[in-house]
Amino acid sequence: MNARSQMTYSSPTSTGSRSQPIELESLIALGLLVLTVAIFGALWHYYAINIPKWDDHALRAFLYYSDQEPTFSGKVYQLFRQHNEHRIVYDRLITFLDYHLFGKLNFRHLMLVGNLSLVGLLAIFMVILRRHGQPLLATVPVALLLFNLSQWENMFWGMAALQNFSVVLWVLAALYFLSFTDWWILALASGVLATLTSGNGLLVWPIGFGLLLLRFDEPRSEARPTLRPLIGWLAGAVVVVGLYFTGFEKPGGIAYVRPDAVDLLKGWFAVVGAAAEALPTNSPLSLSILLGGLMTVTTLGIAGWELMTHRLAIVRVFERLFDRKTFVVSTGVVFPALTLFFWSSALFVLGTAAVVAWARTGFGAELLITSRYKLYSLTLLILLYVYGVVKLKAQPARWLTLGGVFGGLLFAWFSYGAFLDEAIWWRHWLTTNQFNWTYTVHRPVAKLDPITQRYTSPAPAFYDPALRTLYKRADQPPMVLTVTKTLNGFSIEEQTTPPLGLHDQGAYLVARSRKRVYLFPVWQNQRSGILGRLLPTRSFTAGFRANILSGELEAGTYRLLVLTVSAEQPYGLHLTNQSITSAGQSGDTTTKNW
Fold first, then answer.
1. What is the dihedral angle through the alpha carbons of 26, 536, 504, 370, rounded to the nearest 10 degrees?
2. Burial letters for 294-328: b for 16+ Cβ neighbours within 10 Å, e otherwise?
3. CA dist 123 to 3, 340, 390, Å?
4. Which residues of the chain have pLDDT under 50?
5. 395 and 16 Cβ atoms separated by less than 8 Å
6. What does residue 506 show for φ and ψ, rounded to 5 degrees?
7. CA 217 to the chain's CA centroid
8. Which pLDDT score is estimated for 259?
């Protein structure tokens, strides 16, 4: 077995004067790690709700179409069936298992499995740091960058958690096995999982092949270099990629808007630096572009320096690969495992960011720093940090570790200030959507279609005890709303309602006609300035705003009311001075593929 496959940890000195501080530091580090993950898990448990969003409905549809297939081959087809540009086999397998284990599909379970991928990523970086003799404290910044509220969108969305978190885990696991061990078959399995989780998992195949080429001439127990890993990886790539594109159809109805070169470069930097959105700034997009540019230049600079350092070894590997006379005996060219892992992982992150920028920049640069892409920015920050800690000498590495802990704590705290309102609004949006598709007539009678009833159960929601209130006459003092007609609907503001809580409490808009009632979430106003970012629970102030799209309403005229939910007075219904008229859904069938 190659020496890479052996775990090598540097042991701290066992003298009494040194062991006690080291043990204390390890206990502190362990406490910080547990606390970081526990806070993340507690927030997830507090805000996550078993209600589907967008692509989640496609997973429920998979169960239905799979049950309609009379043959095994038909069921396999449904498992591998194309979803947009992806083959979401992993997502569907977890969906299938959850439904058959629990009797109903539970989207919180899907979120949980997806979020556990972050634990896997933490484990990979922890093992790498320990391989290079780094203390447990060096892992704390990694955890703080992974487990924070900047991940809110993927955290609370079943399909997104399974896809966007898991694909990064499978790719980095494959690259770890290829860089640090001889377990290329495990890397192959991870590559298959990555490809069957998300489209960008396809990047693992060319990157992994490059890693195996660079490791081709390493000394092994065999007398001569072996092509078995290269041939096995190439065969696996041909089979998996070939099957992926068999019957593949380009998603139709997507109005792509191609950016020019400058906007594309800015978009690329924005995706790479999207972590900066958590920082207190008046221009998160500009700061993300600036940070992304700095991270990209730093990454390419490190990669370029390493390439120059190892240029002769790279040339020698390719000469030996194609020279039959010198092929018979290994000359023992060994690249540092961390260098290979850094090159390959950074290439995956930068390549994915480039694809996202190419496909999404035309729809608006702000979309590029959305939470669902944050993990790529955070992963590159982690890669740069781990590389620096391992490569620097002892004292500078120590200062980088301590700086990473302090900076990670600050970043995590800022993320809770920046995105707490998003997490609250997301929960409110999901619960009001569930109400709108459940109660479709002008009385509190649930009407769910048979397919929904068969595969999922409605989540208990704040409005369950308030159904009578929603359909009766308003009994609370009137509120003054300002309604502005927009291109696609209505913008609504109110200036006096105080913040009522941080969970299901708060104000909700009620749109009521003779045919039915709708519920809509609102954004509670927030304090401006740094104080609101430093104290997340005190960041809210009086008043709220909301947007209602005309397409969310059936055609008709609706009187607007406000439902308030609080601990002191559980439910209150307020009249307002406004009504809105909707023409119903438009005839625009353009697919928004994000």
1. -80
2. ebbeebeebbeebeeebeeeeeebeebeeeeeeee
3. 21, 18, 17
4. 1, 3, 5-15, 17, 223, 588-594
5. no
6. 135, -170
7. 37
8. 83
Query: Which residue in 23, 44, 51 sits closest to 431, CA to CA?
Result: 51
Q: Which of 268, 281, 260 is nearest to 368 (CA)?
A: 268
**How many other C-beta atoms lie within 10 A of the C-beta of residue 61?**
14
- pLDDT score for 594: 36
d(CA 408, CA 29): 13
**Cβ-contact 422, 371 below 8 angstroms:** yes
Show Cβ contacts of residue 45 under 8 Å, excluding neighbours closer than 6 positions: none
**What is the rounded CA–CA span in Å between residue 203 and residue 345?**
10
Buried b (16+ CB within 10 A) or exposed e, 555-594: eeebebbbbbbbeeeebbbbbbebebebeeeeeeeeeeee
pTM above 0.85, yes or no: yes
> Cβ contacts of residue 111 below 8 Å, gap of 6+?
44, 48, 155, 156, 157, 158, 161
pLDDT at residue number 10:
44
CA distances from 454 to 61, 107, 186, 458 (A): 11, 15, 38, 11
How many whole angstroms from its chain centre is CA 372?
4
Q: Which residues contact 199 (CB under 8 A, 6 or more apart)?
A: 85, 86, 87
Token pair for 370:
């959305």
The predicted pLDDT at position 312 comes to: 87
- 274 burial (CB, 10 Å; 0-12 / 13-18 / 19+) is buried
The single residue listed with the structure tokens 């939470």 is 371
**How long a stretch of residues is the chain?**
594
- Selection from 432, 566, 556, 555 nearest residue 497 by Cα: 566
Q: What is the pLDDT of residue 220?
A: 62
How far apart are the two ends of the chain, measured CA to CA in Å? 45
Q: Are 531 and 577 in contact (CB under 8 A)?
A: no
The Cα 241–Cα 282 span in angstroms is 44
φ, ψ (nearest 5 deg) of residue 93: -65, -45
Closest C-alpha to 55, from 153, 162, 151, 159: 159
Q: pLDDT digits over 165-224, tens only?
A: 999 999 999 999 999 999 999 999 999 999 999 999 999 999 999 999 999 877 665 545
Collect all residues with Cβ–Cβ distance below 8 Å to 424 and sequence separation of at least 6: 47, 502, 503, 506, 524
